[in-house]
Specification:
With 185 residues, this protein is α+β, with helices and mostly antiparallel strands. The N and C termini lie far apart (47 Å). The chain has helices at residues 4-26, 75-84, 107-144, 150-183; strands at 41-44, 47-50, 55-60, 64-69, 91-93, 98-101. GO terms for molecular function: ribosomal large subunit binding. InterPro entries: Ribosome_recyc_fac, Ribosome_recyc_fac_dom, RRF_sf.
Length: 185
């Protein structure tokens, strides 16, 4: 059975990896993805509502996202919300659907996106190391107060370091996958 300190560290590290995975998933790449619209809220009868609750979002063969609202009266509100977002997308409203065309990104754009993804991954690694540092401090306090032996401390330190290495490796893999996705033409 895992020591409560190790279990607590693992839970926190898992949440960090999950958050980084989510941030990378929502990141813009050269390919259209409905996930990039998840953060955009539309004012629908006074309530901020996600686009995917107002419309179907699909990807067409011509590198475009197609947003087809169930209620056509929200077309202009969706269009305004997309323009107002900081994603740099240009929606085209034809009265029935909104199309967002994703031109093939330049190498420079791709490199910027990779750099941004690397920053996100690095933030995750820093958070994991901070969790490790805090847990090791708690461990030292337990030894100092005579609650656990020095042998247990060494064993738990190794468990925490192994866990840290594993979680950092997971973040590296998430970044590598995202980098490959961004650089793919």
């Amino acid at each position: 059975m895992k020591h409560p300190l190790v279990k607590s560290a693992e839970d926190k590290m898992n949440k960090t990896v999950e958050k980084i995975s989510e941030e990378l998933r929502k990141m813009r790449t050269g390919r259209p993805s409905p996930a990039i619209l998840e953060e955009i809220k539309v004012d629908y009868y006074g309530a901020p509502t996600p686009i995917n609750q107002l419309a179907t979002v699909s990807i067409s063969e011509d590198r475009a996202l197609v947003i087809k609202p169930w209620d056509k009266s929200v077309l202009s509100a969706i269009e305004k919300a997309i323009f107002a977002s900081d994603l740099g997308l240009t929606p085209q409203n034809d009265g029935n659907v909104i199309r967002i065309i994703f031109p093939t990104p330049t190498t420079e754009q791709r490199q910027k996106w990779v750099k941004k993804a690397k920053e996100i991954a690095e933030q995750g690694k820093i958070a994991i190391r901070n969790i490790r540092r805090d847990v090791l401090k708690e461990l030292k306090d337990l030894v100092k107060n005579g609650k656990i032996s020095e042998d247990d401390e060494k064993r738990l330190e190794k468990e925490i370091q192994d866990l840290t290495d594993k979680k950092i490796e997971e973040i590296d893999k998430l970044f590598e996958k995202k980098e490959k996705e961004i650089m793919e033409v």
